[in-house]
């Protein structure tokens, strides 16, 4: 399956993010893995990462009150926290389909 955003094909996840958010380059200072996670991380690692990500997000929001760029960084970081990598979401669909849960 091919993924297109605004008529351009995204071959890897980073290209998809760049096209979807309109970035030529990813913002510096935002550690995407902190907010998204990495495939195969344990539940303990995920819990620790999410705790740190929430603290960083709170700091970005606080500093964003005085700095517009930091405020946009906070919005971007929060959006990252609510994303699900495509492969992880497709794995769930396949598992539920195999179990007969899918309609």
TrEMBL record:
It comes from the Bacteria. This is Uncharacterized protein.
């Amino acid at each position: 399956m091919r993924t297109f955003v605004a008529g351009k094909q995204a071959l890897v996840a980073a290209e998809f993010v760049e096209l979807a958010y309109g970035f030529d380059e990813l913002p510096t200072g935002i550690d995407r893995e902190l907010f998204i996670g990495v495939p195969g991380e344990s539940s303990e690692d995920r819990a620790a990462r999410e705790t740190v990500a929430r603290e960083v997000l709170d700091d970005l929001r606080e500093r964003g009150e005085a700095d517009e760029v930091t405020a946009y960084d906070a919005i971007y970081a929060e959006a990252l926290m609510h994303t699900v990598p495509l492969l992880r979401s497709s794995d769930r669909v396949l598992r539920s389909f195999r179990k007969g849960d899918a309609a």
